[in-house]
Every structure is written in structure tokens, then in C-alpha cells.
Design brief:
The chain is of the alpha/beta class and about 180 residues long. The protein is built from five helices and seven strands; from the N terminus they run αβαβαββαβαββ. Strands 3-2-1-4-5-7-6 form a seven-stranded mixed beta sheet. It starts with 10 loop residues before the first helix and ends in a 14-residue tail after the last strand.
């Protein structure tokens, strides 16, 4: 079985990474082996990854800042910090959703993709605690401008997902947004 570190970045993250400029600060939440952290580091971004698995983070220390933290049972290790991009894939801890949205800097982007209701019919995860309810990701992103959103079935491997690209607009970005389609 391949680990996240051996996998290519998510096509969703790749597509919407055009919203993240060179030199931007990027937070990869529950980054595991760092497929997205590496993707953004290779694109010239300043990257930060947080995960509870110290062994998975160790090889990433040369790519950027890494923090070992249990973000479900401990305090948020990045309190007060904001990032030009916050990236979350294959991870859901509902109490953390407001913190993640608040971590998006003005002009920044939230890229989120995780499992949704329906996934219990095709595999794991199957517990409702780990599956977004219909429209739940849209509700979590209140205060951000939704640039793209999908909720449905994907093949290869079969799974149900919700995914979102959203920006925290500034007064100037709201005048003439340039979001690639």
C-alpha cells in the first residue's frame, strides 16, 4: 500500500494551487508524509505541516516547518498564526473547522477535500464522525468566498468526497477577482 508521501498530490489541490502565489505561506493540516507540503515547497512556498505522527514528519524537516501535535486532544499549536493557504485532505475533526477557517489570512485560500456521506457504502472511512454531511463544508466556510465546490462520487478508488476552494477576500480582491476556472 502506498503512503501519502508516495502519492501524487490530490488533483483538486493541484488544480486550485494556482490561487497560491510563489512565496506564500502554506499550512498543511494532518499532513502525514507530506504530499501536499512537498508540492507547495517545490512551487516556492514557505510551508508548515502539522501532524501527530513524528516519524512521518521527520523526513519533511528539510522542506519546511513541521510541528508534531495532537490537534484533536491538545491545544491548537498555531494559535494566532494566519497562512496564505490552508490545505486539508482526507481529514475531518469538526471542532477544528472554525480554527482552520480563521487561519486563512486576508487574500488567502482554503483548499479542503475529505470524505463525505455515502462513503460508508463503498469503503472506509465509514463512521459518520469521519464523513461530512451534505453541504457541511460549505457551512464551515462561512465568511470565505467559495470559488469551487463539489460533493459527490469519485472513482479510482471509489469514494464519496466534498471538496472546496475558497478565498478570504480583501477589499481589493472583491473588486475584480481573478480566480482561474
Amino acid at each position: 500500500m502506498q503512503t501519502h508521501g508516495a502519492l501524487a498530490p490530490s488533483p483538486w489541490v493541484q488544480r486550485w494551487s494556482a490561487l497560491v502565489p510563489h512565496g506564500a505561506s502554506v499550512l498543511d493540516v494532518a499532513c502525514g508524509s507530506g504530499r501536499h507540503l512537498r508540492w507547495f515547497a517545490q512551487r516556492g512556498c514557505r510551508v508548515t505541516g502539522v501532524d501527530r505522527d513524528a516519524a512521518a514528519l521527520e523526513p519533511l524537516r528539510d522542506a519546511g516547518e513541521v510541528l508534531v501535535a495532537d490537534i484533536e486532544n491538545g491545544p491548537w499549536p498555531l494559535a494566532g498564526r494566519r497562512f496564505d493557504a490552508v490545505v486539508v485532505t482526507n481529514y475531518l475533526w469538526r471542532p477544528l473547522l472554525p480554527t482552520l477557517v480563521a487561519s486563512v489570512a486576508p487574500g488567502g485560500v482554503l483548499l479542503y477535500e475529505t470524505f463525505a456521506a455515502g462513503n460508508e457504502t463503498v469503503g472506509k472511512p465509514s463512521r459518520p464522525d469521519f464523513l461530512l454531511r451534505p453541504g457541511e463544508l460549505l457551512g464551515a466556510a462561512v465568511g470565505l468566498r467559495i470559488v469551487a465546490y463539489e460533493d459527490g462520487f469519485l472513482g479510482g478508488p471509489d469514494r464519496y468526497v466534498q471538496r472546496l476552494a475558497a478565498v478570504r477576500e480583501t477589499p481589493t480582491s472583491a473588486v475584480a477577482p481573478r480566480y482561474p476556472l
